[in-house]
Design goal:
This protein is α/β, with parallel strands linked by helices and 276 residues long. The chain has a single domain, classed as Spore Coat Polysaccharide Biosynthesis Protein SpsA, Chain A (Alpha-Beta Complex). The protein is 35% helix and 16% strand. The chain has eight helices and nine strands. A seven-stranded mixed sheet has the order 3-2-1-4-7-5-8, with helices on both faces. The protein has a two-stranded parallel ribbon with strand order 6-9. β2, α2 and β3 form a beta-alpha-beta unit. InterPro entries: Glyco_trans_2-like, Nucleotide-diphossugar_trans. Its EC number is 2.4.-.-. It holds the Pfam family Glycos_transf_2.
Length: 276
């Protein structure tokens, strides 16, 4: 089971949270129940991004089989919170997901298989041909998302959906990419993936079941201009880096020995994974 006591975590998941006191208890319960059933030890890191409600207290008082720890990030922005969380990880495999758990956690099974096979970056894609998407926002937001992703495909290795909040990495690569992350707002996913791609990492997109949740803090009217400006900055920095030597990819994590190793046949085959 994923709750072996005293053993180091094989998987650490970051959950950025700002004023999530209403949704976080159900989300954490759902996530911890899934992680407790995995054949690896897992831990959760909740990053409180300047909440003014009871978000932090919920995490402090959380008790359960899966360890959940609290970090604070006073710098506003989801990107800043994810960077803080990834920097604090130590596990061979790391990732992040949204507090609303909009992505069905069954996808974690395939994520683990692919990471074990050596895939350095695994992301959920709502535009994968086998994804099931329910209630995906307003038409204007859907159109904006499609346009945005077409603008950035060359930066992120052709991924069709950069904004799904369900991304996982080989630990050394995820920490190295997060260390270079400068975008604090909603476009941070693009820069994070771009840092992985320029290190030579291939991005594997997998199908997900995704359900729109009420309470999203993203607003097309308030944040579209900010996202476009962030994208311009990301491209400018990518151009400057292109004239400098490319960073070498960090070494892959060493094979996990003993009880932490995923047992052969312990998870379903990932042969159905494909591009987004």
């Amino acid at each position: 089971m994923g709750t072996w006591r005293g053993a180091p975590a094989l998987l650490e998941i970051v959950v950025p949270a700002r004023d999530e006191a209403e949704r976080l208890p159900a989300g954490l319960a759902q996530l911890c129940a899934k992680l407790a059933g995995l054949p690896v030890r897992a831990e959760v890191i909740v990053v409180d991004n300047g909440s003014t409600d009871g978000t932090a207290e919920i995490v402090r008082s959380w008790r359960g089989e899966v360890p959940v720890r609290l970090l604070s990030c006073e710098r506003p922005g989801k990107g800043a919170a994810v960077k803080t969380g990834l920097a604090a990880t130590r596990a061979p495999y790391v990732g992040f997901m949204d507090a609303d758990m909009a992505t069905d956690l069954a996808a974690l099974d395939e994520v683990l298989v692919l990471l074990r096979e050596g895939r350095p970056v695994v992301v959920g894609s709502r535009r994968h041909g086998r994804s099931v998407v329910e209630g995906y926002a307003l038409p204007v937001r859907r159109l904006g998302a499609i346009t945005f992703n077409r603008l950035v495909r060359d930066l992120v290795g052709g991924v069709a959906d950069t904004q799904c909040g369900f991304k996982f990495f080989a630990g050394p690569l995820g920490r190295a990419a997060a260390a270079d992350l400068r975008t604090t707002g909603f476009s941070f996913d693009v820069e994070l993936l771009a840092h992985c791609v320029r290190r030579g990492a291939e991005v594997t997109a997998i199908p997900v079941v995704w359900r729109d949740r009420p309470g999203s803090t993203f607003s097309v009217r308030r944040h579209s201009l900010e996202c476009l400006l962030d994208l311009a900055r990301i491209r400018a920095r990518a151009g400057r880096r292109a004239t400098s030597p490319v960073d070498a990819a960090p070494p892959a994590p060493e094979p996990v020995k003993g009880a932490l190793a995923l047992p052969d046949g312990g998870l379903p085959s990932a042969s159905g994974a494909g591009p987004g």
